[in-house]
């Protein structure tokens, strides 16, 4: 018995010795699951499911055909699988791309109180300061490394800053302002879960600037002008570490530092 246990232990150690090799490509004879497109009629599906009186009714509506049989094959995967691969193609001139699920694009969520997203960063990419009005967020780094920060609220308005390596994770409170930043010259990726099927997102600066000039002006301590030519005046009101970090990262990676108003390329 003892030797059998030892042999099993030795096998386990052997298996651990090559933990990463299997991740890039499946072994011979094993094919990767096929891509899944987001349903084009997702809103229609979600709208029909939302009126179902119980969760069982919602799942039956989503997962069975009109004869009451559970869907199979591609038809089943089209409902149960959200595929982020197609979103790993950031538009030119952006620092990366992100997609977060919600019932209007992934109707399966209509039967749950959770959603999730994947964020792909290019070098020095920044997921700009934002908040999720209806969900706490739990994220785990799945490629590279990132830096994150959040500020809770008045009376605890201190930046809580974390550095996350591969497969390290952290949490952001619901409605707390936060950002994620890739401080390296390589790509980075995180996957996140949010405890609401429709957590929402509000970009802070973008949406703050929706208020009238006069309101913005007073709130920003009345800078003489508001525009690209006084970006440093703006910066003193923005998270200092982040602004410096972005410029420093771009320079270190040999990427051009954008002039005011431009997006890093
Ligand atoms: C429902 O699925 C079952 C099992 O796959 C199949 O036999 C049946 O024809 C399907 N019904 C409809 C209306 O598609
Ligand atoms: C980085 O990500 C881009 C997509 O944004 C991809 O085209 C490129 O191959 C990735 N580079 C590496 C080294 O993985
Ligand atoms: C902002 O306030 C300053 C100081 O009162 C004033 O000079 C400037 O014109 C104001 N700008 C706007 C857009 O209201």
From TrEMBL:
The domain of life for this entry's organism is: Eukaryota
What's the main place this protein lives?
secreted
Q: Which compartment or compartments is the protein found in?
A: Secreted
The chain positions of domain Cupin type-1 read 84-232
Which GO MF terms are attached to this record? manganese ion binding
Q: Where is the signal peptide?
A: 1-17
The text of the family note is: Belongs to the germin family.
Protein's recorded name = Cupin type-1 domain-containing protein
Organism of origin is: Gymnopus androsaceus JB14
